[in-house]
């Protein structure tokens, strides 16, 4: 199967490529260096679900507020624009994927994705990544191509499931049946949705191998998400990371961050 055919069918059948208008406006506002708290809050307030979620998070014990946050203006001020963007992205992707006609147990899928998201955020904080909320979103998005492919190509992906349950490599099996894989399709989605490029990079590269050279700022989030995907324990699609290559890659990533196995275990236990 040609890769271009996969992209064409995904785009034609799933109709996922128009972001909710409010999310598009939130992304635009939060990327605008001249935007004010008030202008961002005005955009956010057009979406009741997003407004409620932001107020809930702003009033959580994590922020330690002595008084209740009641207005969306105050919530945006408390959370900051990056967290507002992260929450908006997470909610929208969750809603869009749950509308897919897929045989996947989406509860299992989101449990798997959420585990990687939380691990990514914990690792980001441990290695002093400046924006751990971005790591959370990156982790949540890593495997988004899987339900997309399962929904668009149910017959072919049924064969993929059968092979990976026997311990076959996921990317190799996807390539053999579809001419592409879930990392490429996920990155394609990120581009079509106009998500910040760093998220597409994380999605496309999370299965790659790494060297132990110093971590550049541009590559740091990609490596954080890649490490989290290899530490996660809950999988809805078989023993994907059981090979020596991925075990070695995990150790290489630990080395590149200067983390010991004991420190990783400490992160994983939080």
User: Major sheet, described briefly?
Assistant: none
Taken as a percent bin, the fraction of beta residues is: under 5%
Helix content: 55-70%
Rounded to an integer, what's the Rg over CA atoms?
19 Å
Secondary-structure element series: HHHHHHHHHHHHHHHH
Morphology call:
globular
Mean pLDDT: 86
**Count of DSSP H/I helices:** 16
Distance between the termini: 43 Å
* Residue runs with pLDDT of under 50 for 5 or more positions: 239-243
Structural class: mainly alpha
The overall strand count is 0
Structural summary, described in words:
By secondary structure, the chain is mostly helical. Helices cover 68% and strands 0% of the residues. Helix 2 runs antiparallel to helix 3, helix 8 (132-141) crosses helix 14 and helix 14 crosses helix 15. The longest helix has 21 residues, at 106-126. The termini are far apart. Mean pLDDT is 86; it is low at 239-243.
């Amino acid at each position: 199967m040609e890769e271009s055919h996969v992209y064409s069918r995904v785009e034609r059948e799933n109709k996922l490529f128009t972001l909710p208008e409010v999310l598009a406006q939130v992304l635009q506002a939060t990327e605008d260096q001249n935007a004010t708290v008030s202008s961002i809050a005005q955009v956010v307030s057009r979406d009741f679900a997003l407004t409620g979620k932001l107020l809930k998070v702003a009033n959580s014990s994590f922020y330690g507020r002595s008084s209740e946050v009641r207005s969306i203006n105050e919530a945006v001020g408390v959370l900051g624009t990056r967290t507002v963007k992260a929450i908006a992205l997470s909610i929208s992707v969750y809603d869009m994927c749950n509308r897919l006609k897929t045989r996947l147990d989406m509860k299992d899928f989101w449990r798997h994705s959420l585990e990687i998201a939380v691990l990514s955020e914990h690792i980001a904080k441990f290695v002093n990544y400046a924006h751990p909320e971005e790591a959370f979103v990156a982790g949540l998005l890593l495997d988004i191509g899987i339900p997309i492919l399962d929904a668009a190509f149910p017959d072919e992906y049924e064969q993929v499931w059968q092979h990976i349950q026997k311990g076959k490599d996921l990317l190799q099996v996807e390539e053999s049946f579809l001419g592409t894989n879930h990392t490429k399709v996920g990155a394609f989605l990120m581009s079509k949705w106009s998500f910040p490029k760093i998220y597409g990079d994380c999605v496309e590269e999370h299965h790659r191998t790494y060297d132990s050279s110093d971590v550049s700022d541009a590559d740091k989030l990609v490596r954080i998400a890649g490490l989290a995907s290899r530490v996660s324990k809950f999988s809805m699609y078989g023993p994907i990371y059981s090979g020596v290559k991925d075990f070695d890659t995990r150790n290489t990533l630990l080395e590149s961050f200067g983390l010991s196995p004991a420190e990783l275990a400490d992160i994983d236990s939080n």
